[in-house]
Amino acid sequence: MSAASDASGASAASSPSPAPSPPSGTPSVAARLDRLPLSGWHRRLIVIVGLGAFFDLYEVFLGGVLGAVLTDAWSLSGTQKSMVIAAAFLGMFAGANILSVAADRLGRRRMFLVNLALYSFFSLAAAFAPNLGVLLALRFLAGLGLGAELVLVDTYLAEFLPRRVRGRYISWAYTVGFVGVPIAALLGARLVASRELLGLAGWRWLLIFGAVGAFVIWAARSRLPESPRWLVSRGRGAEAAQVVAGIEERVTAGSAAALPPVPDEEPAPPVRRNVPLSEMFGPAYRRRTVMLWIFQVLQTVAYYGFGSLAPVVLVAKGYEVTESLTFAALSFLGYPIGSALAVPLIDRIERKLLIIGSAAGIGVFGIVFAAARLPWLIVTAGFLLTVCSNVFSNAFHTYQTEVFPTGMRSSAVGIAYSLSRLTSAVLPFVAVRVLDSAGATAVFTGSAVLIVLLCLDIALLGPRTTGRGLEAVAERPEGDPGAGTAAGKPTETTT
């Protein structure tokens, strides 16, 4: 894959303006991308992007491990243990706001490189932290780098993948990332049990592993092209056409068949450039913004609550740290399996319905996990919970990319997603206190109540997106005059 030109740093104009339309008879960038058959080029893209997603997910696991291990090693109080878990999430909150907005202004590819470089450097530095204060500061800065990672994964892939398989292959990217989570948990159990390796404590090697792995993926990402849809939104249509032509050459080279013709395009408004962030709260997008903000606060409890707190909960049940990490690793096998299970479902079942059904499963199995005492039941409930978690995760990561236009997609999704990171930072302080005073069942029962509210939010406020073109969904939100219609008929095309 050849690298595209760096994105322009020009700032957004104060009002939206349409990108120049292609000459009459010239297919649009979106139509050319959507008609491509899946190829080796697409699959390599999915692997490179998906492996980067692993490090965001790895951090969720790592916070709980560090909290459990350092409680003994550094004699941490309950508040200090919560601070260890929360530090990276606070950094992610700041990073999601800063880097996701920058991705709409400076480009997806550039921010892909910036975020992993920051994470790799500060995670490596954290491995040599001499005390709690330095560790917390460096964990915050590492989190800052990862803040927009999943937002960029979602946005970047959604803007390249054909609409008929968009959800399916975003799910494959996350499956690639999630394969590493149980491996990381097992690695963590081994390193923690070994106490020291080459003179360094085992937990420090977990940080080194994250830093070195992220640098390898950074090197692979340096060859990625810029998003053609983003280039069009910045008025750089010639560059976008050049990137698409290069992709078409690679797809053609990997197949004996000729590319299918570009189909006639359904009527759609032109892709707008320089969309101001204030439009998130305008009549066209206000409902979607409110829906996504509420959802992101609540989904933290549903999803990150288990991943970050499972080792702490198991220690509270009376298991040793190494036992709790082994149980967690077996439970975490559900992450890649659930992600793979989402692949055949996500483009066949309306995404908002898939989100609601899988969230309900998280609530039920979370309560069982909390109440269980027998090891086999703990592992089984944890496994089924993580399976549901990743059907849920893959569905919502695809869904959130589809509801805003290209000119503000990364910003709008990133700002909303940052709320999940802020909630993740607060969650340990609340959950650990409730865990100590009322037990694990109370923690997960409270989570189940919040999951019910999440389901109502999606059901009442979320639009339908499955099978629709990215521009058709994002450029014509419900509530706009003529939204979703052309000559009085729906414009979306299902596949």
Overview of the molecule:
The protein is mainly alpha-helical and 495 residues long. The chain has one domain (33-261, 274-485): Growth Hormone, Chain: A (Up-down Bundle), CATH 1.20.1250. It contains 18 helices and 6 strands. A two-stranded antiparallel sheet has the order 1-4. A hairpin with a 2-residue loop joins strand 2 (196-197) and strand 3 (200-201). Helix 4 runs antiparallel to helix 6 (149-160) and helix 11 runs parallel beside helix 14 (351-371). The longest helix is centred in the first third of the chain and has 34 residues, at 40-73. The radius of gyration is 22 Å and the shape is globular.
Task: Produce a short descriptive summary.
With 495 residues, this protein is mostly helical. It has 18 helices and six strands.
Summarize the helix and strand pattern as letters: EHHHHHHHEEHHHEHHHHHHHHEE
* Tally of DSSP β-strands: 6
Number of contiguous helices: 18
Structural class: mainly alpha
Low-confidence stretches: 1-25, 479-495
Portion in strands: under 5%
Question: For the residues shown, what is the average pLDDT?
Answer: 80
Q: What is the assigned CATH homologous superfamily?
A: MFS general substrate transporter like domains
The rounded Rg comes to 22 Å
Q: How far from one another are the termini?
A: 29 Å
Shape: globular
Query: How many structural domains can be distinguished in the coordinates?
Result: 1
The amount of helix comes to over 70%
For the sheet with most strands, the description reads:
2 strands, antiparallel
The CATH class, by name, is Mainly Alpha
* Strands side by side in the biggest sheet: 1-4
What is the CATH architecture assignment? Up-down Bundle
